[in-house]
Amino acid sequence: MKPFSFHSPRGLGEAVDLLERHGPGAQVIAGGQTLLLAMKERLARPSALVSLAEVADLRGWRYTDSGALEIGAATTYAALAEAELTGVPLRGWHTEIAAVAGDLADRPVRTMGTIGGALCAADPRFDMVTLVVALDAELDTVGAGGGRTIRAAEFFDPVGGTVLRPGEILTTVRFRPQDGFSGVAFEKFRYRVFDAALVSAVCALRLGADGAVADARVTVGAVHPAPVLATTAADRLVGGTPTAVDTVEIGLVAADEVLPAEQATTSVRRYQRELIGVLVGRAIARSHERAHTTTAGS
């Protein structure tokens, strides 16, 4: 392992200054679940590590005056999974975010791994990568040149990686208020409970006053270098109701859209194609159920 210096700033401004001072060889480290492994395998050889562990402003979550949910990038999966035990429990469909955080990898990884770290690693198999795109989250960053806000779908490069600039730090993940969606459901398949997803799927619905779907987002992850919005499948949901929607048919539409049969040339890719149809169908059914349960209870 190449020698490196380690820095533990107390504030965000200090972290930005350290990254600028140490130049291109400096890298941010949060939980270290991805970066440390890459360093051990000599896939990453930073000259300096800037830790965000002591930057308190990057941990935790809050609801804004508009009802949006803001999660600090250095918040661990374990902390978010136990949100209901805190003074700021998640509400409505936001609880699906906590459920996803509590159902990935194993306890040690959830304890150390952070939301922002997973997004910056940009591994398409990571659940949070798929989820933020599916829910149209906004990501705030800061660097020496100032801050900016990036939509999740634009944060991930279609060929892999992110659009983060050198020296830029992801600070906040912002999700829509409760009225942004009526029901959200995340589904995935993994070989073992602590494995990354082979395929993941999310359906997010917003119902109109008549109970029909007014807006829908269907997203598939772990199949390509970045999550894919299955817009054709989502459009098929708009205007429908639970009794009128054929979840199997729309799942097949999503499979054709995300991984056409002519591209499924290996056994793994053919299996992924089958999984897309099944998981999208399940996500649609469960999001419909949650949306109507929420509407009935409001």
UniProtKB/TrEMBL annotation:
Hey, what's the signal peptide range on this chain? none
The record's PANTHER family line, in alphabetical order, gives: XANTHINE DEHYDROGENASE SUBUNIT C-RELATED (PTHR42659:SF2)
Molecular function in Gene Ontology? FAD binding; oxidoreductase activity
User: What keywords sit in the KW lines?
Assistant: FAD, Flavoprotein, Oxidoreductase
InterPro entries reported in the protein's UniProt record: CO_DH_flav_C, CO_DH_flav_C_dom_sf, Diverse_Substr_Oxidored, FAD-bd_PCMH, FAD-bd_PCMH-like_sf, FAD-bd_PCMH_sub1, FAD-bd_PCMH_sub2, Mopterin_DH_FAD-bd
Can you tell which superkingdom this protein's organism belongs to? Bacteria
The protein in question is named Quinaldine-4-oxidase, medium subunit MeqB
Q: Where is the FAD-binding PCMH-type domain?
A: 1-180
Transmembrane segment boundaries: none
Asked whether the keyword Flavoprotein is assigned, the reply is: yes
> SMART domains per the record?
CO_deh_flav_C (SM01092)
